[in-house]
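User: Sequence recovery, please. Input:
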């Protein structure tokens, strides 16, 4: 089984959905940010504060490459993982890339007041969310499927992910069967 990579802005449900999806599929779950914190032995906020975002993106890329060598994982990725085209390529080559999205209001309701969100520790977090989402929109558009989680339960999101991953399996099987038929005509 290929990996499923959940990307999207913070607060869209990547970790919550990822854990439940892994449980339902009886496979492994990994949160890329948790893996980075474990390897670095410090919190993401401390990495940003001490070494800055470029350093964080470098170690995020390394962690993604490491996880992508495995099979059958549900991976919750940090919101900015898509900013690097190499990351997108790695995820598409080794799995299905699903973007979870939500409205600015839903995101703020879910993550508002959390001090471990370094990109939202600003005077106007709604404006910051809007700016960052618009900036990242072209990157998120490169995914296999976008699912708006604003008004969906975790079960509903999982159902949509299952539908997307099942459709891709069917398409591959159809393509495989078509190739076999074409070869047999020769």
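Assistant: Recovered sequence (186 residues):
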């Amino acid at each position: 089984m290929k990996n499923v990579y959940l990307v999207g802005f913070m607060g869209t449900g990547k970790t919550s959905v990822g854990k439940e999806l892994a449980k339902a599929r009886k496979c492994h779950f990994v949160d890329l940010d948790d893996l980075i914190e474990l390897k670095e032995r410090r919190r993401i906020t401390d990495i940003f504060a001490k070494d800055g975002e470029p350093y964080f993106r470098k170690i995020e890329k390394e962690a993604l490459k490491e996880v992508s060598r495995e099979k059958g994982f549900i991976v919750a990725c940090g919101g900015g993982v898509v900013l690097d085209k190499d990351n997108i390529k790695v995820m598409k080559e080794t799995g299905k890339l699903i973007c979870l999205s939500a409205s600015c209001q839903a995101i703020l309701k879910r993550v508002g007041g959390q001090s471990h969100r370094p990109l939202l520790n600003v005077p106007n977090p709604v404006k910051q969310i809007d700016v960052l989402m618009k900036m990242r929109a072209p990157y998120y558009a490169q995914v296999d499927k976008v699912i708006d989680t604003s008004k969906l339960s975790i079960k509903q999101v999982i159902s949509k992910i299952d539908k997307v991953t099942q459709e891709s399996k069917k398409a591959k099987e159809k393509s495989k069967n078509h190739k076999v038929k074409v070869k047999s005509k020769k």
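Residues 3-184 form a domain with the Rossmann fold fold (CATH 3.40.50.300).
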